[in-house]
Amino acid sequence: MFQHCFNKLPLYAFKPNCYNMASTSFSAKIYYNRQRIQADGTATVYLRVIMNREVIFFNQNFSWPVRFINTNVASLLARWKNDHEAHDYNMLLAQELSKMNEVNRLARLAGRALTVAEFKTEYKHFETRLDFIEFWQRTLAERRENGSIRTGSADVTASSLECLRKYRPTLAFHELTIDFLDNYKNWMFNKQGYDSNTVHAKLKDVRTYINIAIKKGYVIEYPFKGFKMPKQTSRIEYLNEKEFTELKQYFFEKLDGTGTSHERSCRAWLFISYTGLRIGDAQKVTHNDIRGDVLRFIPTKSTRENQRVVEVPLIQLAKDLINTEKGKILQINSEAGMRADMADIAKKVKLQSTCSAHVGRHTFATRFLRAGGRLEVLKELLGHKDIKTTMIYVHVDLARKKHEIGLLT
In a 3-state reduction of DSSP, which class is residue 328? Predict the structure, then answer.
């Protein structure tokens, strides 16, 4: 029950001899059940919380002689001189009561009406108030559970969390400053090699969970005020036909059958470029999703209320890339691992693009339209809800421009 984090709690949380935090809606004190006194005169010690006339009991998992329990002063009395056990238990009870007080206090400061369910959750996970990363992980799990975040979005957010954890395994809330954000941004650019859009997306996820913490009553000096977010670019990256052919040849001549990490990543990238799948979907689809020559699946970005089935006909080149007989149709590394592998491969093939999974999706869409495919069909293949999203692919690549302008006389 007790966690030894007494020296971690903020000093203002401790109010010696003031543990009966009575208010019109909240009070907490030591309690024991007078109907359940054991034969040896001891009883289990509880902490009793009353919120809006609802009573909650928290078992402290130890017993104490009832004649040495003084609920009026909210402490255990020493059974004899220098009763060290009484002193230790009182310290632990003070710690738990202070945590309860802090949960209630922060809710009041945020002007938030705290429900019993919310109080139980925030008290149980009190340590997450010390570490932003732990808070993010717990909150993300709760949002997954209650369906307030889509599966695909949750997976992307989890990737952002792992990136932050790689930079800093633990991160106290008071360390969330504008200087920290600048250093983290530079680390993603210089050490991880992320592009501007990726860094922007990961910082945006940090900002989202800081805002959630503020709404939950965490007292934080907002670090994004005055912070310069990296610019987003709307340019669509894709491989032209020459680059695509060179990458495909490199795979079949150098990698196919090697079983290396590079082979798995390049195989997955090519499959995406022939089907238009998102990386999250490519990681999850199985042989059970294939009916004849058609891959049928519900995109990971679908909401519970809007689960649309996407059907993608598999051409022979796509089927040739499936190298498993059951289970998942591809053995894909993590998104970060695939990005690193494809960056290495792009250098070896001397491509300008780093060939992220999304570049594979863009390449599929671009090649489809260039081959004469209709926009409304592309919308369905990509699983877009609105054709306006698909319209971003209606562009003319540089090679086509050069060809057309060469026709002028």
Answer: strand
Neighbouring residues of 59: CB distance < 8 A, sequence distance ≥ 6: 1, 44, 46
CA distances from 128 to 45, 96, 279 (A): 26, 15, 31
CA atoms within 13 A on the CB side of 197: 8
Instruction: Indicate the pTM of the whole model.
Output: 0.53
The pair of three-digit structure tokens given for residue 165, joined into one six-digit string: 């954890």
Site of tokens 């022979």: 316
d(CA 183, CA 227): 11
Residue 112, φ and ψ in degrees, nearest 5: -110, 130
- Rg (alpha carbons) of the chain, rounded to whole number: 29
Per-residue pLDDT of the chain (409 residues; tens, 9 = 90+): 433 333 333 322 333 333 333 344 788 999 999 999 999 999 999 999 998 889 999 999 999 999 999 887 778 999 999 999 999 999 999 989 988 888 888 777 767 778 888 888 778 777 667 789 989 999 999 998 888 887 778 888 999 999 999 999 999 888 899 999 999 999 999 998 888 888 999 999 999 999 998 887 776 789 999 999 998 766 678 898 999 999 999 999 999 999 999 999 999 999 999 999 999 899 999 999 999 999 999 887 765 556 789 999 999 999 999 988 889 999 987 887 898 899 999 999 998 777 888 899 999 999 999 898 999 999 999 998 888 888 888 765 555 566 667 666 5
Rounded to whole angstroms, the Cα distance separating 65 from 13 reads 28
Question: Which tokens is 265 given?
Answer: 């990543």
